[in-house]
Amino acid sequence: MQTNTEKIFTFIDTYAESAETLYLEAVITACEQWLSGEQSPKIEEGVTKEEIRRGIQLAILKGMQQSAQSHHQMTPDSIGMLIGHIAGKLVEGEPGVTLLDPAAGTGNLLYTVMNTIGKDVKASAVEIDELLVRLSAVTAELLEHPVSFYVQDALRPLLIDPVDLTISDLPVGFYPDDDNASDYRLMPVEGHAYAHHLFIEQSMNHTKPGGHAIFIVPANLFDSEQSANLQPYLKKETFIRAVIQLPDSLFKNASHVKSILILQKPYGEMKATPEVLLAKVPDMKNKQAMALFFQKIDMWVKE
Length: 303
Known about the structure:
Layout: H1 4-18, H2 23-36, H3 49-66, H4 77-90, E1 97-101, H5 108-117, E2 121-126, H6 130-143, E3 147-150, E4 163-169, E5 174-175, H7 178-181, E6 193-194, H8 195-205, E7 207-218, H9 227-237, E8 239-245, E9 258-264, E10 277-280, H10 287-302
Parallel strand pairs: 1-2, 1-4, 2-3, 4-7, 8-10
Antiparallel strand pairs: 5-6, 7-9, 8-9
Helix pairs in contact: 1-2, 1-3, 2-3, 2-6, 3-5, 3-6, 4-5, 4-10
């Protein structure tokens, strides 16, 4: 017997495979037909938002594997759910939570976090690729999540009010627009700036005092060529709350290993510099080790 997630994927996949358009374009059309009631998957009552998200994202992932565009990448669910858990604990009990993802892609990470937080949460999503925005927007409608979309270069001025929590799987590499990058403090004296450094600065500009930012960053963030620029900025403008190393087994290539960086924007009442949580995620297939790891995270947030 198929699960709701499998039924949703089968419905979208069957439509997309029979369509004469590109697979990802057909995914959008299938979701639009579902929204309009013309066609829909035969799902059980009480289907959850996580089941809907996973079903749609499985179809998007299949379409991306057929695409030649290398920048079409998706944050793995295992990492998304970990960030969702941390984010949910950081804003637990707060009314009217606002989120920002400045590099939203298809929205997989953003919606995982929104599903974890639950009610009374709204988000802003910035993405320069129009196709990814369309995929993200139709998913948001089916999930009934209030999301405002901005189709633009996230490193240009953003008309977005400061938020409680910023999350992002940061784009890694050089940012080619030196003229625009010159407005940032993390622009180096020579050469192009690292895009992921600029995204950190832009994100902190749009995070409320006392608010947090959770980033997926290269594991060598503090050992890279431009880290000498980044470290003084972080020390002056943020509190580094945690650096969490992700398991090497999640990445095909050792050079692509990532970590989770958690920052907090200082506010008036903060006086003492908080301790930094340094941790390593265990093998995610080890349920007992993961349960202990989540306990450690929960105790850290509580303290």
